[in-house]
Amino acid sequence: MNYLSFLLEPENKYALAYFVVHTGVADTYNLLELAVSELLSCEKTESVVFRIFFIYGCQGTGKRHLSYGFANKLISGGYSQDKIKLFELSLDKIEQEQKVSPIVAEYEKLRTSGGLLIVYSQMLPEQVTQNPHLKSRLLAGNVCRLGLPKTEELEPLIKSLAERKNLNLSDKSVKMIVESLPLSTLSFDNILDKLNVVALASGKNPGERLLRKIFNNF
Question: Of the candidates 30, 51, 29, which has an alpha carbon nearest to the alpha carbon of residue 40?
Fold first, then answer.
């Protein structure tokens, strides 16, 4: 996603502080948190521990955010960045095939030396690849599905997204966004991007009038 140069972004937009845990992601979040704790603990004792995750779900469910967020948590805890590998498998078949060898190679390397391997995708496990060497490795670890939040969980989620874009929204504005947009977090992210641009261009604080203006063109 591209941002205008004058838009303010947090230093680390994938920080876990900006991730709102809801029922659609709670199980995966807890498994990643446990894995990170185990890896950090074993690093101190020089034990070899390898953890692999295949995370899937539709657009906007937080796959990238969780992957990078927990990778950064490991690094900030003193874990070697060389022992953390993240891959995204897109819907493009050619790109998928190009990543088969690198993922398999990293799997074998980290299995021996210890580390964390996360592969995330929109695809279901059975759709992710036709290559048996890659598929068997991806399914050997934690296979996690991310889902969308429930309606009653949306307000804290929107507030977190707004904070990530340095927007201060009133409770009334947050309710207005919840009632006006589809459940997808991508829709919320999109509307907040537009609100950020319009607010900066107009020099006004985000409010209901700006929201209505954006909704009319959404």
Answer: 51
pTM: 0.77
pLDDT grade for 47, boundaries at 50, 70 and 90: confident
Bridge partner residues of 120 (DSSP): 55, 88
Quickly list DSSP for 20-38: PP-TTTHHHHHHHHHHHHH
Question: 79, 143 in Cβ contact below 8 A?
Answer: no
Phi and psi for 12 in degrees, rounded to 5?
-130, 95
Q: How far apart are CA 149 and CA 68, in angstroms?
A: 20
Residue 210 has pLDDT above 70, yes or no: no
Radius of gyration of the chain (CA): 19
CA–CA separation, 203 and 133 (whole Å): 55
Kindly tell me the sign of the dihedral angle through the C-alpha atoms of 190, 201, 159, 12.
positive
CB 103 within 8 A of CB 136: no
- Which residue has 């210890």 as its token pair? 114
Confidence of residue 6 (pLDDT cuts 50, 70, 90): very low
Residue 11's pLDDT is what?
Answer: 60
Dihedral (CA of 101, 102, 105, 107) sign: negative
* CA 178/CA 175 separation, integer angstroms: 5
